[in-house]
Amino acid sequence: MTLRRALLWLHLTVGLTIGLVVAFLAITGSIMTFQAQIIGWAERNSRIAAPSQQSCVEPSALLENAVDFEPGSPTGLMLYSDPHQPAEVAFGTDRVVLVDGCEGKVIGQGANGLRNFFQATRDLHRWIALNGVRHETLRAIKNAAVLGFFFMILSGIVIWLPRKFTWKHLRPAIFFRGNLKGRAREWNWHNVFGIWMSLPLALIVLSGIIMAYPWANALLYRAAGDPPPMERAGLEPKRPKPLSSDKFPTLDLAIRKAMMQDARWKSLSMRLPAAKDPNVTFTVDEGEGSRPQQRAQLVIARKDGEMVRWEPFSANPRGRQWRLYARFLHTGEMFGMVGRFIALSATLSALMLVWTGFSLSLRRFASWRKRRRAHMAIAPDKEAKTTVRV
């Protein structure tokens, strides 16, 4: 058996083993590709048609009005420099109240049904978690399947390589052929989807490995010349006492200082501090929230509004920068809408690779059984003829 044929059989075996898991990841990944755009479209009627030209209310009023509308403890506040875009007051990960960022009037609930759907899909994709319950064994299987898929991408490229690099040999493997049927058609599709999407799929899968395995994340940091970060404990931290509504005005000074920190900001995300936290943490974004280079972390003291820490992307160590690149590369967000379309095409191609791979395997198995039956039917005839001659 040649090395190429051995690699083919190994490619086939791994594909049959992990195919269904890869299809699951491709489906959940494709669903989340345009999450932000879908939610934005669902909330299009909540945009503020005629923003107020008068002086705006204090930011704490947004939180107070949201709590009156949606009882509970808010966990975050998102402000936008665009006056037509309503502010978002988050209650956990599944509820959002939209508020006029200037007048403070509650517009209504956001597309919370969609947010719940995408949150559940993300939990399934990342943790194999449903209703907040993680299944560590299934997660380990999922992570191993991601490793196996990376091997399949690399081995598939080697198997695809034609023996001669001529247009005559390359053309059937890189373009769809409309005159084929059955096994030949599926082999053609498997080659075309695989070779055109091999690079995007390899980047998506490799970044997924980095996010799934601590050892892969550590390798990334070491390659960047930085020490790996400390691993976080797996236990859920105790939830501190949330900030009471009568203390919301203590956040106004910090929020105003955060808005003045970067004149080019487009969105300002604040995580509400606990009752005893002395500081307020912000994420300042100069773009649409999809490029790490345009994000910065800001920490401001709640008492006097003094800046505690300002960390633009360039201030991060190289290892941290590469880790952020991996996160946004995985979803295609780093390249805007074009990147999202490529990511969607790659995930759909992964589904096609799984389908054509299983179909080709079943056809190969059926062909083997047919040959075996034919061989078994011929064997008794030969034995009978030999007996007659004797």
From TrEMBL:
It comes from the Bacteria. It holds the Pfam family PepSY_TM. The keyword Ribosomal protein does not apply. Keywords: Membrane, Transmembrane, Transmembrane helix. The chain crosses the membrane at residues 6-27, 144-162, 193-213, 348-366. Signal peptide: none annotated. This is Putative iron-regulated membrane protein. It comes from Silvibacterium bohemicum. The lineage of its organism: Bacteria, Pseudomonadati, Acidobacteriota, Terriglobia, Terriglobales.
